[in-house]
Fold each of these.
Amino acid sequence: MKIRDIGGEFALIGRLAQHSPITHPDLVAGIGDDAAVIGGSFPGGDYLLATTDMLVETSHFRRDWATPAQIGIKSVACNVSDIAAMGGTPTFMFVSLALAPDTEVTWVETLYKGMADACRRYGVVLAGGDTTHGEAVTISITLLGRVSPDNLRLRSHARPGELLCITGPLGGSAAGLAMLSAGLDPPQYLREKHLVPGCRLDVSPLIAPVARAMIDISDGLAAEVNHICDQSGTGAEIVVADVLIHTSVRDAARLTGNDPLDFALAGGEDFELLFSISSENKQLLEEKGIQVAVVGRVTEAVSGRILVYPDGKRTPLSGGYNHFS
């Protein structure tokens, strides 16, 4: 049986987790969230956060499209986004690289300059790593962080009746990728969304204290809603008309023969935040000047996960980026 035959990446993770049943009293949250949460790590009771992400050449970046500095920035941002999704603050980073022996030293140095720029932006310290040889450039980053128990946000915290909100427009990275793949020159907005994405560490410390469940949108809105529902034991309704999609994304969909909604639901690498929140607490965010968009609501599990179209049509909410599909 092949990985693609069992449902791809997340089905594989579920199967592998069954072979790692070891628990520990300090492990607050392990497999199944954006980062692992470890207690007993800091004076005052803060939890340690640990996340890891891997970027592989041709799968996550292409050197003929992106500069080494841009690749470095993206590799850091996608890891910081995981810490932001937990309500935490990033601290120390460890980088492992696989490089071909004929890789130019200046290329690697510029890659690290991009990483350093991103680390300064997010307050991260590069503390170590490893290097080895490989046919394709592979960047593996482990990022640590910390979070107070009161601000910790897990995917399992959602409750029926809560609103589902996002922090910004979706589909930009996928639209930029589609244009580049078609040999088209993306507008600056889409080029930056795909090649040098940021993350929402700027607003997560303000959202976390009043939100319930939270996750970063790295695999498309559909996948992330389903992750929250899986972990929280709930259903969800997503209203198509309320999903924020930038004009440039709609233009790119027209030029490449795609549906802009597909970019938002299944494209991935937007690194916005999706979170559940009570209507009262959303009002508190607005009073603080934090603009978010309501895209749906959490429902009872028996209601399923539903996509609601403007004409009233209702379909199952499925899709999302899958590395092995």
Amino acid sequence: MTELRNIEAELGKFRRRVLVATAVVLFCFALLLARLVWLQVVRHDDFEAQAESNRTAIVPIVPNRGLIMDRNGTVVATNYSAYTLEITPAKINGTLDEVIEQLGGLVEIAPRDRRRFKKLMDESKSFESLPIRTRLSDAEVAKFAAQRFRFPGVDIKARLFRNYPYGELAAMWWAILGASIRVKRN
């Protein structure tokens, strides 16, 4: 016996299968589009903040500076360690002026410090750490350390500064000594 095929019924089944497959594919694309909108539009601010805080930065390591001595072993320049208050403009919350005003309540920031900081900002990039105040006292360091959580992007760093025990006298002495050496050689 030969089996009679119902072509119309099979064609109807095929069309239903194609419609179901098309609906499933369109549904998957709609899910992908919805997820894209969710990530790119709705959660944009969250991800932007995470990306900003996750950025890597090259932090230079300041080398130790040695003592400078003359030929007789007399120390002409020494080093001393002091704390500096530094701001990384890209990491602060709020405006820079607001943060500086709030810092002024904890640590004395003179107008000349503010001018120097603004000048440094104009010359550098926003992700670089810039000193707003140098040579902090231990009391100022302690005050800031207790309130540090209020100031993201603001840090205290230990730096080495040069100290010239003879001040300008050493420079004049070197100039005189150099002149006398030149005279003796001639």
Amino acid sequence: MGDAFCELIERLPADELPKVGGLNASIVVSIDFTGLKSGVGRAVLATGEPISASLARRMACEAGLIPAVLGSRSELLDLGRTARLFNGAQRLGLVVTQRVCTVLGCDWPAHLCHAHHDDSWFSGGETNFDEARLLCPRHHARIHDPRFETTIHPDNQVTFHMRT
């Protein structure tokens, strides 16, 4: 039944799949272009789990490919004040770069996290990629709780302290 389910997923049109956070159901695979082309080597899922390059190539055969150029500037991922919610491209970028909830010690997977503005949009913050972070639902509620003080550390990890 698992094989049948995988076959079904591979055959469904992408535009008919449900969306979460502006993204269709997606599998994020990191692999260099040479490995994808040759089918030799190793790829890594967004969860950190390694898969073979040949499996990544087979998965890419039926999917749309979105190249993620890491280390480049993110101008196209910056929306400023024109939109309050993060778009699909921004969410995908966060999934690729952050991988899990950004609270220290939390390992909630990125695809289940909420995108959060470091500077509140309602207080003039912008919907820009470099001002966004992923937070699991529990920590997203906590970051908005006035009883807690939030610290964003230089490594982009977040910690909370009860206000006194």
Amino acid sequence: MTSVRKAKHGWALTLFFAVLSVIYVMPIIIVFINSFKKKIFISNRPFALPDAKSFVGLENYINGIEKIGFLQAFGYTLFITVCSVAVIILCTSMCAWYITRVKTKITATMYYLFAFSMIVPFQMVMFTLSKIADMLHLGNPIGIVIVYLGFGAGLAVFMFCGFVKSIPLEIEESAMIDGCTPVQTYFSIVFPVMKPTAISVAILEAMWVWNDYLLPYLVLDIKKYKTIPIAIQYLKGGYGSIDMGAMMAMIVLAIIPIIIFYTACQKYIIEGVVAGAVKG
């Protein structure tokens, strides 16, 4: 009887989470469907499938790419995302290794400051941030990478510190005995072991940077540099008119790369998050 109850309970949970997953995916499906429909049919029948009257093929995609300069915006977004994630992973992993291995009051204070930065609302610092970024001339794709490093460091350091605590210190000591410098020990021994957590951090940070609208809008010189979220807003015309077809098409093109990246790396997420949560 117990096994039968467990089986029924398992089927109920499976059905519940299946329905829940469909609900979460439904907005993406609706956006994809409407990206092939005429503007008037998107407003009148947003949940209907395209038919002979409403279907426009790739017209919305072509119009959207031409209107907002999608390829240029894609290039800027890709550059900012790749560079920001690479810098965050490199700098925060080294910082976490130092904080964990060097036990002083300074490193303890640094750790708590990084942890505290995760709970500070962005609205509290956005005015000061935009002012300082303007003073330091960071309103370009390279400068904003530094800004993203500051905002992304809190979570990354927290996860890396948890993982480093689980690495046996004897491995690093053996490398030192064999003649490795601290830099060689880090890149040859420590960083390769950090791979699951590094990939998890990369996924979380990439999804944030790729989809971010507010920070690039505040920091970048949007007359010269537009990321995809900013460029899509330019489909909004005067008096509140919006080319919904082109907007839906551009949203689809914007989410495809990050979905592919997430799907390719998702198997490392749970392993990395669990490893990064080790207290040691």
